[in-house]
Amino acid sequence: MRNAGARIGLVCGFLVLVFTGFAWRLIHLQILKHDYFSEIAAEKHCFRLPIPARRGRILDRNGEELAVNIPVRTVTADGTHIHDPAAVAAVAAPFLEIPEKELAEKLTTGRQYVVIRKEVTEENAQGLMRAMEAHKLHGLYLEEGAERSYPNGEMLCHVLGFVDHSGHGIDGIEKSFDAELRGQDGFRMIEHDRKGREIVIYRGQEQLPEHGADIRLSIDMGLQAIVEKEVDTTYKELHPAAVSAVLADPQTGEILAMACRPNYDPNNFNEAKPEQMRNRTITDMYEPGSTFKIVIADAALNDGIVDEKTRIFCENGHFSYGGKILKDHHGYGDLSLNEILMKSSNIGSAKMALRMSDEAYYGYVRRFGFGEKTGIPLHGEISGQVIPPHRWDMLTKTRMAMGQSVAVTPIQMVMAMSAVANGGKLMKPRLVLNKGEGDAVEENVPLREVVTGKTAKFVATALQGVVSDQGTAPLARIDGFTVAGKTGTAQKISPHGGYFENRFIVSFAGFFPSDRPRLMGLVIVDDAPIGSSANFGGLVAAPVFSKIGAKAARYLDLSPEKSSAVVQSGTPEHATASIR
Amino acid sequence: MNGNRRRTTNSIEVNFLARWLVVFFLLGLSGLFFVYLKNQQHSVGSQAHEVELALREAEAKNEALSAKITAMTSRGALQRRLDDGYIKLEAIRDTAIARITPALPAEPDGVLRTASRDPEVRFGAGAPQRSVNR
After folding, report:
1. What part of A 38-77 touches B (C-beta under 8 Å)?
2. ipTM field
3. Contact B70 A155 (CB under 8 A)
4. Closest of A165, A486, A447 to residue A342, by C-alpha
5. Min distance A356 CA to chain B CA atoms (Å)
6. Disulfide engineering: A386 pairs with which of A210, A371, B85, B87, CB 3.0-4.6 Å?
7. Which chain B residues are within 8 Å of A149, Cβ to Cβ?
8. Is the Cβ–Cβ distance between A506 and A524 less than 8 Å?
9. What is the pLDDT of residues A399-428, one digit of tens each?
């Protein structure tokens, strides 16, 4: 009996020890090593599933879509879930458009994450998943993504820009407003089973994505199409190095259309050359020539140096100053301010500048916005070049008055001419109306008052004469409207110093209707290979402006002015016929 | 004999047994119910996942089709079709236009306008601005 009792005691003791061991092991696994094993389990089954934010669209002022997203999928493979790579390859190859053999090689991997193909269309991706399910195969997964598309192709390419393959804005609005457009990706912590399927009830922390904001531009695609067509025609007919055109609302500074040639298709930006990608209206500076005469006219009038009755002797076309001869296209005697602008007299402009102090004149040039960036929300804008008075030589002031020795960007010229049109207020160019804030649009506040309303009105009226039969740009006329504007014809600067003999940048900047200008337009034709006798702003750029203006007026349904027939008689068609 | 037999027989306490049986039965039932609920949860989760996938698929298809429609009706695409002669622009005859506002006189540009957005032209100089909301 004693032996039996001892045996029972031994067995019980053994069992106690065993179960104590088990209990200790349980405590060790579940409590002491809890964090360690939880981490290993989480690594194996839990992961952070990114929920991509949708990139915002870019719209024109009327809500027309200019940049949209096309949903595409990235197909990935988990090698540990693929038991028969050949079978999976046979099913998936037609949907992925990859040769079966090549795909089978890619799938024969022990790695858990392999990108098989990017930018698979939604249709193909869904077809692939259905086929995999039908064949009871596993191991291929889809990731969400989107491809950026620009439905209008080349149209407005320099403003819109493009995004790279990772969806980051590289140029244009896509770059300037990348943060707003991109939004914030969300995520979800999930657990999946052995076959990679999500176990929904074990979903963890989740953060929804913040989709990118839609950007509504001030661009009106109706006007943009008009401008693009005329710019394109000019580029193809005249074969210049470049053509640029801008349409703006002079009252608000809103940019309504902006086009350059050469251009590119942002859908295929890889094929574009650097010179095609330049938005020349903000990245290129040029000597403006006579369009710059609006500055000295405004400045002299505003400071009381001249008035409407003042007559300036224009030396019959030859003015000797500073050891150089300054010439006019024709010889003129006494000219009023109106006539100086109408005839585009270099000597008259130079003499007005000479009556002003250097600092005062320089001050006006800067107040018109030259020599500083306009602040248009596009990358690559330059500030142009305005030489300060302490670096002027004797001739600088007279040259600046006629648009030489100064370099401006087209957008600066548009805003300066807009200031003349809107009563003397310099506006900041506005390209974006709002950023996903519904219809709310902030009022555009003027940067500064450059000249008084009276001065601006006088110069604006004087500029109407430029488009008359006596002026330099009768071809800029628009039926039914009084156009005010100024031509510019500037020799191109040679990189070896001085100017090229027969190479010109010609331009026309103008606005209409006269009572309350609604449209301000600038057309620049750079180095058109036509004879110097015909390469003038009034002959090359003005007709383009006229065509754009006429179509734009009809598009906007502007009411014709009754006084236009009196101020600017004749029709552009007649004028074209007589010059050609 | 009877006395001895009575001494060696253990009585079964039915009440006590029944109580524990009920307790274990209830415990077992709760366990089964717990497993059933868990399975239901998994099943509902899977269904929710399926619905999510279907929604996402429909949304993606919708986006893809919208993008296709945008591409096909974009200005560039329409211009190309116009240039190729697939579509044609035809002027609307004056007699086919129902005018809400009187037509503007055809001067000085010779172009008749269907309507003007300028209230002064539509209702005469000095006319008050008309509002749709009355």
Report:
1. 64-65, 68-71
2. 0.71
3. no
4. A486
5. 43
6. A371
7. 67, 70-71
8. yes
9. 999 999 999 999 999 999 999 999 999 999
Please tell me which of the candidates A149, A200, A557 has its beta carbon nearest to residue B116.
Answer: A557
Q: A221 vs B75: CB contact, 8 Å cut-off?
A: yes
- The CATH class given to the A49-217 domain equals alpha beta
**CATH 3.90.1310.10 placement within chain A:** 49-217
Question: In degrees, to the nearest 5, what angle opens at C-alpha A567 toward C-alphas A563 and A572?
Answer: 105
Q: Determine, for residues A554 and B111 on separate chains, whether the beta-carbon distance falls below 8 Å.
A: yes
Q: What is the CATH number of domain A221-273+283-579?
A: 3.40.710.10
DSSP state letter for A212:
P
Record: contact B76-A200, CB cut-off 8 A = no
Whether the CB-CB separation of A387 and A337 falls below 8 Å is answered with no
Say what the pTM is. 0.81
Query: Residue A68 and residue B118: Cβ atoms within 8 Å?
Result: no
CA torsion B54-B57-B61-B64 (nearest 10°) is 160
Residues of chain A with CATH 3.40.710.10: 221-273+283-579
How many Cα neighbours within 13 Å face the side chain of B101? 16
Summarised one tens digit per residue, pLDDT across range A328-357 is 888 889 999 999 999 999 999 999 999 999
- DSSP symbols for B116-132: -S-HHHHH-TTPPPP-S
